[in-house]
Amino acid sequence: MNQLCTGHTPASLMSRRDVLSQFGMGLGAMALSDMLTPEAAIAAPLSGELNDRGVMESLHLPAKAKRVIFLFQAGGPSQIDLFDHKPLLKELHGTQLPEEIRQGQRLTAMSGNQSSIPLVSSPFQFSQHGEGGTWFSDLLPHTASVADDLCVIKSVHTEAINHGPGVTFVQTGSQFPGRPSIGAWLSYGLGSDNENLPSFVVMVTKDKGGQPLLSRLWGSGFLPSRHQGVRFRSGKDPVLYLSNPDGIDTAGRRDMLDALRDLHELRLAESSDPLIETRISQYELAYRMQMSIPEATNLSEESAHIFDEYGEDSKNPGTFAANCLLARRLAERGVKFIQLYHQGWDQHGGLPGAIRTQCKETDQASAALIRDLKRRGLLEDTLVVWGGEFGRTNYCQGKLAGDNFGRDHHPRCYSMWMAGGGIRGGMSFGETDPYGYNVAENPVHIHDLQATILHQLGIDHERLTFKYQGRRFRLTDVHGRVVEDVLA
Length: 488
Description:
The protein is 32% helix and 15% strand. By secondary structure, it is of the alpha/beta class. The strands form six sheets. Strands 3, 6, 7, 8, 9, 10, 13, 14 and 17 form a nine-stranded mixed β-sheet that branches. It has a two-stranded antiparallel sheet with strand order 1-2. The protein is globular.
């Protein structure tokens, strides 16, 4: 029996051209559907990996960490003045960067046209700390005090040379906007340990200048929108639009949500649109958060010695110190990924004074967070990461004038540290050359860092994927390796 494929032409009478024409139109319809409703276009998951909601049914690997706290220092902290001790620069201070060291590498427009590129040593003193003898400058006395818990990676490198692409690369695995953030990937893969709190929370230090931080940095990209980060703010309403408006009580809101759910479910029965399911789940989470958020963000429950440990700023909501303390409270309550942003590290000029201010704002609280987590038994399964989008140059941007100088962006090598979550403490990993300009040993690419974070959470970075626009995407895109040598 003939099947009608188009118009009134039986399939048996169709020409080769007719068949190809209809086949092409079918592919176009499939592509259009994929573009308009990408969530509905997820390919069937591989057996034992992902269920139909995109949450892993089982871990790929034994997990050493249950959660991540990422202390992101936006602007590019100077590794030369914090972690990467370079005595040679003292000897060569004011002399020109040798061409055999630079090797024609790209510089930014801010210093690339300088007629003179003088090397500049750090004005700060360095000393070794902990059993591993890790180097820290005297700007970081509190961080140095927890040296035995830290792994300082001195060989991180990136392709990004400007802030926008650089921050986007660390957070999403791509220099181009539109990809899911690392917190969204973890929410998608692991789900939540607390149904009354978001799995991914973001906090930005208040009243800090610097390069702008856009919400796409903690967005879900092409993943379902329920996986995007929820930003907590200082003030009476930590989450915007969560409180009931005047004249609406909790019972009234519950009645409204029940009615809205009924309408959504009627529509869902007709269309099977996964976006409707997302809306229902997000409304319900917001309702539950009305009770959980005030309790989680109530720092008045903390004792005086905790505030003393984190520093005076911890009593001021929205500061980096207060956000570190809140991060610990959220970790206790099962939030999977806690992202703190602290701006102000972009020191093209006036570095000696500006970096002192930055360290005063961040050093004590960062160390206190490590000690606090450890004391509560949380550090062993909480991975803490500290670092920015790139480092700073070993040469001066502009004219070197006495003790006042600045450093330009430097993606070739910089330092970050990790602690807890199955990471070896009390060690440094990777080396830069004596000039602090190129990686000399054990390079760690941004994708390697991301692969290692996922690995500690029990995820194979090559297997956590999402099909979008015809191919499977992942956080590490097409490369990346786990840095095995830093694992405990």
